[in-house]
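Q: I have 251 residues here and want to know how they pack in 3D. Can you give me a structure?
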Amino acid sequence: SLGGRTAAMLEPFADDPNETGEMFYTLDETVALFREAYDNGFEASIHAIGDAAMERVISAAERVYPRTDEPDPVKRLRAAGLRRLRIIHASVIRPDHLERMRRLPVILDVQPNFLNSTGRCVPDRIGPDRMKYYTPIKSFMDAGILVTGGSDAPVDPALPFEGMECAVTRRGIDGYPAEGLAPQEAISAYDAVSMYTRNAAYCSSEEDVKGTISVGKYADFILIDRDIFAIEAETIHEIQVLKTVVGGKTV
């Protein structure tokens, strides 16, 4: 949803030819916001859900952020320092967006649990062609873009294990649809956990002190009641937390 309606730039929804969604900022306004953040050494974080919103964000970013051919996303982010760009949601993209984002210091803050909360309405809303690029987590990762996991709470419940399961199964918690939504975008349980832990630390530029259990980092971790890497993917949402440790202290 990025904002001022610009219907001429947007493809209508598949189930409503009179509806295109809304843009809240023009391209020039988006560029100005990014420039202000960049010049002052801040990360910019912006919500972009549809493919037209993603096009606007990426086009604006290309006017502000230095582009590079560095294939390693961590090296790209470290080179940018605090001047990173976090795109929240990135729910629908166009194929060329992958290569363009791969050259920018971009973090994609994705909500896999949307596959659960909106999975029944999205196929009709965006149509089969755009469904191929709906929450394309595997494509993001394969393109060398750093992807984090979020819940979008309080819009959706703050339940990270539900999101992890959806990222692995591409289905809702109720198993719908059986074939999955864009099933080619399924990822491993390891990659799903990484989205919510190691990768998420980059959103606050705290990857040196958070995200993994490593020497020199905060002793923040949880003990859970089963091995997330060995259980059936459809049961990940049932995991229970037995203990929470923050800074080395059980809380």
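Q: Anything worth noting?
A: The first strand starts at residue 44 and ends at 48. Confidence is low (pLDDT under 50) at residues 1-9.
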